[in-house]
Amino acid sequence: MRVRKAIIPAAGLGTRFLPATKAQPKEMLVIVDKPAIQYIVEEAVDSGIEEIIIITGRGKRSIEDHFDKSYELEDTLLKRNKVKELEEVQKICDLANIYYIRQKEPKGLGHAILCAKSFIGDEPFAVLLGDDIVMSETPCLKQLIDVYEFYHSSVLAVQEVPKKEVSKYGIIEPKGAMIEPNLYHVNSLIEKPKEETAPSRLAIMGRYVLRSEIFHILENLPYGKNGELQLTDAINELNKQQSVLAYNFQGKRFDVGNKTGYIQATIDIALQRPDTHNEIYEFLKGITKNLQ
């Protein structure tokens, strides 16, 4: 079956961005002029996804409002003849069919995925984590879907990270040689290994295409540390039943779940836009000149 549906977990508290996230979801923090989650939704849509379910939690209502129609705003823009702004606002609610379900307790990423079982059914599906924004010519998720459609196996997005940073990520242990350029069979996944014991530098980067058999595994998997259901544990179990692949995707990834990555993403995206490039470039040039 074709990959038509996607899950975007967005129930986290965003404590690394306090106090900004005290009253607004971290997914709604703005990068240039769009909230972070809109970049994720646009990647999904550009990859051919038709239906999206966003896993939310308490205090996340503004996410729903953002992708909903805003009659008062649209009417005001129309009366003021702000045609360009009106088109931008209308386009947001027409991106895809978006649904919402609440994760009532913080029980881990695996539990968040399990919340969407009835929505997904027996179809293959995508998972896009909101902390990762990827800028690439071909959307990162589309690259994974292309791999899935050829091999019909679950596939994870990976990229190499510096050795000193492997303890921050889930790391894959490849099995044998590459199947083709940038594509690996997965032997196992190790969550945040120590630098000296990490089996590779290939880190999982917040994009997955998974077969629906993962739900049965999640339902029967014991809860682990901090009472959480770990997706990596479930994928390791899935890998015992059927081959799981890892694809070293092409693109520039930003971890907008931390302050440095968020600032880097803002600068990079601003430099790519014709309406902000020149001013931001001159500003950065002035800063670097003063530092020398």
Q: What key phrases describe this protein's structure?
A:
292 residues; single chain; globular; two-stranded antiparallel ribbon; 11 helices; alpha/beta; Spore Coat Polysaccharide Biosynthesis Protein SpsA, Chain A; 9-stranded mixed sheet
Total number of strands: 13
Q: Strand content of the residues, in percent?
A: 25-35%
H/E series = EEEHEHHHEHHEEHEEEEHHEEHH
- Quaternary state, please? single chain
What is the 3D shape?
globular
- Mean pLDDT across all residues, rounded? 92
CATH superfamily of the largest domain, by name, is Spore Coat Polysaccharide Biosynthesis Protein SpsA, Chain A
* CATH architecture descriptor text of the largest domain: Alpha-Beta Complex
> What would you call the structural class?
alpha/beta
Cα end-to-end separation? 57 Å
Named CATH topology of the largest domain: Spore Coat Polysaccharide Biosynthesis Protein SpsA, Chain A
Radius of gyration based on Cα positions? 20 Å
Main beta-sheet annotation: 9 strands, mixed
Protein name: UTP--glucose-1-phosphate uridylyltransferase
Pathway: Glycolipid metabolism; diglucosyl-diacylglycerol biosynthesis; Lipid metabolism
Family: Belongs to the UDPGP type 2 family.
Enzyme class: transferase
Structure description:
Pathway: Glycolipid metabolism; diglucosyl-diacylglycerol biosynthesis; Lipid metabolism. This protein has helices at residues 36-46, 61-66, 71-79, 83-93, 109-114, 117-120, 140-151, 214-220, 231-241, 259-272, 277-291, and strands spanning 5-9, 30-31, 34-35, 51-56, 97-102, 125-128, 132-135, 154-160, 170-180, 183-191, 202-210, 244-248, 252-255. With 292 residues, the chain is α/β, with parallel strands linked by helices. A nine-stranded mixed β-sheet has the order 5-4-1-6-11-8-12-10-9. A two-stranded antiparallel ribbon has the order 2-3. The protein is globular and about 60 Å long. The model has no long low-confidence stretch (mean pLDDT 92).
